[in-house]
Automatic annotation (TrEMBL), chain A:
Organism the protein comes from: Corchorus olitorius
Name of the protein in its database record: NatC N(Alpha)-terminal acetyltransferase, Mak10 subunit
PANTHER family in alphabetical order: GLUCOSE REPRESSIBLE PROTEIN MAK10, N-ALPHA-ACETYLTRANSFERASE 35, NATC AUXILIARY SUBUNIT
Segments forming domain NAA35-like N-terminal: 47-186
Pfam family, one: Mak10
Gene Ontology cellular component terms for the protein in this record: NatC complex
Any coiled-coil regions, as ranges: none
NAA35-like TPR repeats domain segment(s): 345-713
Family designation: Belongs to the MAK10 family.
UniProtKB/TrEMBL annotation, chain B:
GO cellular component: NatC complex
Gene3D superfamilies in alphabetical order: 3.40.630.30
Keyword presence, Iron: no
Keywords, alphabetical: Acyltransferase, Transferase
Domain N-acetyltransferase per the UniProt entry, residue ranges: 19-167
This protein's name: N-acetyltransferase domain-containing protein
Pfam families: Acetyltransf_1
Family: Belongs to the acetyltransferase family. MAK3 subfamily.
Superkingdom classification of source: Eukaryota
UniProt cross-references to InterPro entries, sorted A to Z: Acyl_CoA_acyltransferase, GNAT_dom, NAA30-like
Length: 718, 185
């Protein structure tokens, strides 16, 4: 509308101002819009706005009020430009003409840069953290200051390398802010030489250190200038610098073994950096012991040459974010944590068995790794569409489905659904490396895909083998592969559903009044998971047995087969706990009227639908619904629970199955936790059964003191 | 968006009946709303954002007054979202001395009732994971924590997406048959 009015007016007036850059064409002319705008302003009353149809919430939220410091990221705080800041002496080179002060200040800059880097890793923009360093923004200026120059250059190169890892692993929006680098001089010429520069500087300082040590034993050397002018401080400064430089070094070569050695040396350098704090603080004139914990440098002094406001406008179009640089101590702790996580990743055996891999990733996630280590894990797992860049995905699937080794070369891998299944597996691995919040949302969504692929595979299987039972050997193999894969796909689908439900506890998505339905659903999913796992094991035994038909079945072999496998018993233990908690919670609701939450606008049914919508949509499991939940819980009474105590079963199974996992510390620890939950709940249940209905002062609450997602009942008298 | 947290502060003595609730009545209310939100919430909003809400859905915004002083407000919207008609609570604020007396509950209840009457199927909002007061308030109204949103706010804090689903008549029939989406595809 507005456009049209402008062009009409323009054609009436007929005189366009001459603009060389955008010439008028056949359909357009330049026109003065001032009269139109004046007319529009007169026609508008307070609060009215001319806008297009696409002016939505996002557009309204993106609008900024100029000069409002809460919103205007372009607002000038101190300097208009980097150059102006430099002209005003904000980042001098040399930092000081006094060589001792110069070294001190350089160390402060290094420390603050480390703190900035940690702040960037933990969720702030690169522009407002590492690149708040004016020396880094104008790296060429530092060329005459070898120490500062080499450190800044290696820091920039490290940032670039980390950005590239995270962008390669890119799966979701968490990385958007992390990898946002536009407008920043991240790609400098000659950064590939940064390591040799660093080595040269390191060599010089180690010689200076040697000279000063020698000097103290009265042997002077003439050919080398000391680092700075105060001989009493020479050794301390040399040492403080050396660990900071060595922390930034990288060895030549590749491979996980070398990586682990390098990680170990980085950790020890970080410890030396920490130890240097005492010396650096003692040299610093300002001694303010109280708030040293909040400082971004070891010395406790403010670093020279940083201004976060200079490029805050690079963070547009988002409003300027509140930036809090981590303290120097927290930054070191962050890097120690990062290095330990990277070490866990590098020490992984690259097990071709998918089940162990999934277990490893889940365990790893329990330590709450940050973005950078998760990105590294993902890149290690999925490379070039292969597991570890090594195993073709069909090989991984056949192994997971417990098929014989030979199956991995079968032509069936060209089947379009098998190809799709391979993509689902890759996608699953990537999702499992993301943060818990995002992971749960994606897992919920992919459940549908796993269900659909199962239906499609099953249909393909029926079409191929439905009519006549085949005779040819190849068809038999095809059939077997299909059978195995189908069972495994179902098992894997329930595993995803299980993880989806569990992550809800970790993310605190369930309230106490919803625990009953959550444990009930968890129980339903676990039953299916145990069933499919058992079936998979049975099918693979069957296949293995038929392969070695001639060998006579020993009685020992038969006995082993009829026994329930330990992994299934392990799940059985979960099942008993889930069922026990469901029933105890239901009885509490039915008999003592607690943990109910009547709400004015909806009922429990709506909450059920919302929490399990994604599972229900994918029919996981079949025939599970709100009415079936109600049916199985409305009759729960303490009198029946007293007679059949599920927690006792869980305790018994946990005890029994421990011996089967004597080589598996993770599972053993988990079994111990389960045992504790079972024991505590068993006692609590007895107590409530005996006293509950009679004693109105009894208060029951649920805590996660023994296990992250199986609650422990706590009974108190009020 | 946001709901301000409920900390214990010095209280003002007043009777519940003294609080007057008013539906958004025009430009003269806008500075009152903006003042409250600017004071209490960390997120910065432009005037476009406020006007976007109160001009398009004046019937969903309410103000609470005590002896002529504005002490609380709620700002909402509603519309189509992925095939559902959904209400959204954008801002809810009660100033500190007036908290803990049910004013926020009353404000938000009025908005939710309007949404329900206008045919919304559900209501959503975001709240900081650390805002126990708001989480408890919405929990009592029947909201569930549907998702956690990592580093959602500008200050780096996570949020919960809270959702309230209104009952539907057909739900009973659908649920008892199980969901057969897959069979029909």
């Amino acid at each position: 509308m507005a456009d049209k009015a402008v062009s009409e007016e323009a054609s009436m007036e007929g005189h366009a101002p001459k603009l060389a850059s955008i010439p008028a064409s056949d359909n357009t002319v330049w026109a003065d819009a001032t009269p139109l705008l004046e007319a529009a302003c007169q026609g508008l009353t307070d609060g009215e706005l001319i806008h297009g149809d696409n002016f939505n919430l996002f557009a309204a939220m993106s609008a900024l009020e100029i000069m409002d410091p809460k919103m205007d990221s372009g607002i000038v705080c101190r300097y208009y430009s980097i150059d102006e800041a430099i002209e005003n002496g904000v980042a001098p080179i040399p930092i000081s003409l006094d060589s001792t002060v110069d070294v001190q200040c350089t160390i402060d800059i290094m420390d603050h840069l480390l703190a900035c880097e940690a702040a960037w890793h933990t969720g702030h923009s690169l522009a407002q953290t590492v690149f708040s360093c004016i020396y880094l923004l104008r790296l060429d200026r530092t060329a005459s200051h070898a120490l500062l120059h080499s450190y800044c250059r290696v820091t920039r190169a490290t940032c670039k390398a980390v950005v590239s890892v995270v962008s390669d692993a890119r799966t979701h929006e968490e990385e958007d802010l992390f990898t946002m680098t536009y407008g920043l001089p991240l790609n400098g010429d000659g950064d590939e030489k940064c390591l040799s520069m660093l080595n040269t500087v390191e060599e010089t300082i180690s010689r200076q250190l040697r000279v000063c040590k020698a000097a103290s034993s009265k042997r002077s050397s003439v050919d080398l200038e000391p680092l700075q002018s105060n001989p009493n401080l020479e050794e301390g400064f040399c040492k403080a610098l050396l660990c900071r430089l060595r922390f930034r070094k990288r060895p030549q070569g590749r491979g996980l073994e070398l990586a682990r050695k390098h990680i170990a040396s980085c950790i020890s350098e970080l410890e030396s950096i920490l130890n240097s704090a005492e010396f650096l603080r003692s040299c610093s004139a300002e001694s303010c012991e109280d708030d040293i914990e909040d400082k971004t440098t070891a010395s406790g002094r403010e670093p020279i040459g940083f201004d976060a406001t200079l490029n805050s406008r690079l963070s547009a179009p988002t409003p300027p974010r509140a930036i809090k640089i981590l303290s120097w101590k927290k930054a070191i702790q962050y890097f120690l944590k990062l290095l330990r996580h990277l070490d866990v990743i590098c020490s992984y055996s690259l097990d071709p068995n998918l089940e162990s891999l999934l277990h490893f990733v889940v365990q790893f996630q329990k330590s709450q790794p940050d973005l950078v280590s998760r990105a590294h894990l993902q890149l290690l797992l999925v490379q070039d569409g292969k597991l570890y860049g090594r195993d073709p995905i069909f090989t991984v699937i056949t192994k997971a489905s417990a098929l014989p080794e030979a199956a991995k070369n079968h032509d069936i891998q060209k089947n379009e659904y098998i190809v799709q299944l391979g993509q689902l597996v890759m996608n699953l691995l990537k999702i499992l490396c993301t943060n818990a919040a995002w992971q749960r949302r994606k897992l919920g969504k992919i459940l549908q895909d796993w269900r659909v692929i199962y239906v499609q595979l099953e249909l393909a299987f029926r079409n191929e083998f439905g009519e006549a039972s085949s005779s040819s050997n190849d068809e038999n193999i095809r059939m077997k592969i299909f059978q195995h894969i189908l069972v495994w796909v179902e098992e894997q689908t329930y595993w995803i559903a299980f993880r989806f439900l569990m992550l809800g506890f970790e993310l605190e998505l369930y309230s106490a009044s919803e625990y009953c339905m959550v444990y009930w659903y968890l129980y339903a999913v676990l039953i299916k998971l145990a069933e499919k796992t058992h079936l998979k094991i049975a099918v693979s035994h069957d296949t293995a047995k038929r392969k070695g038909k001639k060998r006579k079945d020993s009685p020992k072999e038969l006995a082993r087969e009829s026994r329930i496998p330990p992994v299934v018993l392990f799940l059985q233990c979960y099942i008993c706990l889930a069922e026990g908690l469901t029933m105890m919670l239901a009885a509490l609701r039915n008999e003592i009227m607690v943990l109910q939450s009547p709400s004015p606008f909806n009922t429990e049914q709506e909450k059920f639908i919302q929490h399990f919508e994604l599972l229900q949509r994918a029919c996981i499991p079949d025939h599970v619904s709100y009415p079936s939940f109600k049916e199985s819980t409305t009759h729960a009474r303490f009198s029946t629970l007293a007679m059949y105590n599920y927690f006792k079963d869980a305790q018994r199974i946990a005890k029994e199955v421990k011996s089967s996992f004597s080589n598996d510390p993770d599972r053993l620890a988990e079994l111990r936790r389960l045992e504790q939950v079972a024991e505590h709940n068993s006692v609590a249940l007895n107590l409530i059964c005996r006293l509950g209905a009679l004693d109105p002062s009894l208060k029951v609450s649920f805590e996660f003191s023994h296990h992250p997602f199986f609650a422990t009942a706590v009974v108190r008298r009020s | 968006m946001k709901a301000s947290s409920k900390e214990e502060e010095e209280k003002v003595e007043f009777e519940e009946g003294e609080i007057e609730y008013v539906s958004y009545g025009g430009e003269h209310h806008l500075p009152l709303i903006m003042n409250l939100v600017d004071q209490e919430l960390s997120e910065p909003y432009s005037i476009f954002t406020y006007r976007y809400f109160v001009y398009l859905w004046p019937q969903l915004s309410f103000l609470a007054f005590h002896k002529g002083k504005c002490v609380g407000t709620v700002v909402c919207k509603m519309g189509e979202h992925r095939n559902t008609y959904r209400g959204y609570i954008a801002m809810l604020v009660v100033i500190k001395p007036y908290r803990g007396r049910g004013i926020a509950t009353e404000l938000v209840t009025r908005s939710i009732k309007m949404m329900m009457e206008s045919g919304c199927e559900e209501v959503t909002l975001e709240a900081e994971v650390t805002n126990k007061g708001a989480l408890a308030l919405y929990g009592r109204l029947g909201f569930i924590r549907a998702k956690r949103l990592f580093h959602y706010y500008l200050n780096g804090v996570d949020a919960f997406r809270l959702k309230l689903l209104f009952p539907r008549q057909e739900v009973h029939i659908e649920a008892s048959h199980g969901n057969n989406d897959l069979d029909s595809t």
